[in-house]
Sec-independent protein translocase protein TatB
Amino acid sequence: MFSDIGALELVTLVVLAVLVFGPDKLPKVIQDVSRFIRKVREFSDSAKQDIRSELGPEFKDFEFEDLNPKTFLRKQLESNEDLKELKELRGTFDLKKEMNEVADAVHGRETTPAPTAAPAAVNGSPDLLKKQDKSDTDERPPYDSDAT
């Protein structure tokens, strides 16, 4: 319950409790708080038992942690044998490399083509991803006042 509280934070809480409640009332407050936490845990456990008994024997392995979507998905994915092929396919695909190749093609940098890369020109049409010659880019495009 308090696994994420460090030593300095615990000391700060103790000093603050002594200052707020005083050394004479502090033991009584600690007893009351621990009694309250114990009752809440008992109530929670009895509610879980009631729910399990109402669900029936087919849900005897039901865990309330499974209601968390992340836990549920993790269990389903670990138990599914069909996903082995997907994991193998995922291992062969390098998204970062593919994105770098596309970015290089857009910026006109030369890269070594991948075996699955598309050809540079199809049916004599120019490759739009290749950088154009300097002579073509020196001309300004015609100004169209109706388009602006």
Residues 117-121 have pLDDT under 50 and may be disordered.
